[in-house]
Amino acid sequence: MILLFITSLFFLQSKAQCAMCRAVLESGEDQSAAEGINDGIMFLMVVPYILVATIGYIVYRTYSKSKKVKNTGQIL
């Protein structure tokens, strides 16, 4: 519960920064810089999701394997 609260504080702070960057980039005439910044943000956003999904899969696989062994009574 504490981790959720701390995470939400960081989200609020980062959301404010993204809005400021967007306003500055959209005000300029050269939109290629804005597109590059947006692509970079999207790339950086993907990495944490991949890490969380990988950790979640490892935990699921470990839990599933231990549950299967417990039901059959075998020792690995």
Unreliable segments of 5+ consecutive residues: none
The overall pLDDT average reads 76
Total strands = 0
Overall body shape: elongated
Number of structural domains? 1
> Main beta sheet, described?
none
The structural class is: mainly alpha
Order of helices and strands: HH
- Strand percentage lies at under 5%
How many helical stretches? 2
Task: Work out the radius of gyration.
Answer: 21 Å
End-to-end distance, in Å? 35 Å
Which descriptors apply to this entry?
elongated; 76 residues; 2 helices; mainly alpha
Give an overview in words.
The protein is mostly helical. It has one domain (2-69). It has helices at residues 2-27, 31-72. The longest helix is centred in the last third of the chain and has 42 residues, at 31-72. It is elongated, with a radius of gyration of 21 Å.
Task: Provide a short characterization of the protein structure.
The protein is mostly helical and about 80 residues long.
Q: What does the secondary structure layout of this molecule look like, with pairings?
A:
Blueprint: H1 2-27, H2 31-72
